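Following up on my earlier thread - several people asked me to post the actual chain instead of describing it. Fair enough. Here it is, all 313 residues.
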Amino acid sequence: MIQFSGLQISLDRREPASDIDFISHAHSDHIGAAKSSKSVLASDQTAELISCAYGIRISRTKAPDGVAMLDAGHMLGSKQLCMRDEITGIQTIYTGDFQTAYSRTSPKIETKDADCIIMDSTFYSQSFVFEHRLDEEEAFARWVSSSMEHGIVLLSAYRMGKAQDIISILNDNNITPVVSKEISKINGVYRRNGIRLEYISPDDPDHDVALSGTFVGITEKRDLEHMKSCLKRIHGKRVYTAYTTGFAKIMRLNSDAQFVISDHSDFVQSMEYIDSTGASNVYTYGQNSALFAANLSSKGYKAEPLPSGFILK
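Reply from S.P.:
Thanks for posting it. Predicted structure:
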């Protein structure tokens, strides 16, 4: 939690003493304050996604003076929190999860000058340096098309954010995937917000026809192996599986293929983001904050994990 202009502001978690709870986006590990908070600061799209995915209607508040939300490029509705002290003029930005590479399904990240940054620490080391996004997408599309010639393709993706990016890639390659009910519900929010997605849901009239031939399916990670087994048994065809995640850069996953397609910035992109803001102080935030701060410090940045109860000055 941080203190700004006499207010206690929580960052993507529920803090009992907070005055305002900022929810940067609608992924489940960032909405701890959604149920109980009476003063949530979040985007319209994030509120809609939380309602759709979790059945929670958040109690929203307006941004106080000196506070604004900036696009984060991570997923639909994702925001950074920008706080400017009206007396000193010092500006601090909390990124939440962010992405500086282009996003297919969310606005481009906004960058502003800042004196201080509080940064997400997902990809915390130099081991996480990704290939060019378009090159990886092209390799992914080629693999899907080739695998479809020999059997069914089943892809693992988070139902919110990643699934919609994958559908967009497939659509650009003339492939309409079959998706689960959960993913279809989230797709509806994206469509209502102007994102073009073509897919076949369990409620579509041609769903059974699509499943009778060779097709591409998208499901969540927890269901991948079960769905693979069921499809193989029912259809008598080989089922090819693949993951799309930034962690594919350093981990060997249990699938036929894996592609480094991420909705987070890698280590180099994080440094480029810091440079673009001109920030002299960096505070890292999240599970790997100590490692991220140490690795940034080794590159010459003034970085440390965000202290508890940090006061913006």
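Residues 10 and 178 are 38 Å apart (CA to CA). That should answer part of your original question.
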